[in-house]
């Protein structure tokens, strides 16, 4: 079981970029359109990560400009290509990511969790071995993809599908509708959405 932290902000920039941000008058932040990060209400933009980014921009005395890539890899590409200064999108840390990016102090912890459709008389899996041959769905470019690739070294028959076209909640929808057998998502994602999915449960944590 691996515990991941959720940093408030992720940066690919040096400290000198702070002066660039102040002189330009704009903080460019990459985020995703998800319930935990950023979404639009009738009153305007909302979301926990959005509020964090807005507060940071106000602290710096600059305007906030959002970049909203469709995928997780798109978030990191935005800061590598200097289209954004920071990521604020509930991304997890990992050893591979920490070699390339600077993470802020985490505000929460998350564990990759296997989600299944609760059925009477059906016992959920208790290990990755029991999931071999099943239809597993995860987000492309996610920490879960890194974990499964490492596990595949010990379980060569393990397979899964990665998607760039869905959000974490879309993946939960797929499990709920029994279109896939399992999803692997951040525990914080499922915990925040579990009330909308009374037919889903946690099998085990990676």
UniProtKB/TrEMBL annotation:
- UniProt KW Glycoprotein keyword: no
Q: Which CDD domains match?
A: PBP2_YfhD_N
Arranged from A to Z, the UniProt key words for this protein are:
Signal
Task: Name the InterPro entries for this protein.
Answer: Solute-binding_3/MltF_N
> What SMART domains does this protein's entry cite?
PBPb
What sequence ranges are listed for the domain Solute-binding protein family 3/N-terminal?
Answer: 26-206
Q: Which residues form a coiled coil?
A: none
What name does UniProt use for this protein? Solute-binding protein family 3/N-terminal domain-containing protein
Q: What species is this protein from?
A: Nematostella vectensis (Starlet sea anemone)
